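Board notes (copied after class):
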Amino acid sequence: MENRVAIISMIIDNEEIVPEVNGLLHEYGRFILSRMGLPYRERALNIISVVVDAPADKISALSGKLGRLPGVTSKAVYSKQTDKTTKEG
């Protein structure tokens, strides 16, 4: 399966769920290129962006698992480029 580059963005409004979020990110850690987290204390939110390079089904699975956690909103944005595109030119 072809790899895709994507950004998974999350907004977390339930601080108690953060350990579960971190557990999922650890589980998919081999696909993660970068992670940026921003605690927005004034609004009691945590905002996290994760850049991944993985098969589309793995990206979708991670984003879906994150989004099913209570208090977590998650969306993935995919690059149009695949690893096949990169190799061809």
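Comment from the instructor: Strands lie at 3-12, 32-40, 45-55, 72-82. The first strand starts at residue 3 and ends at 12.
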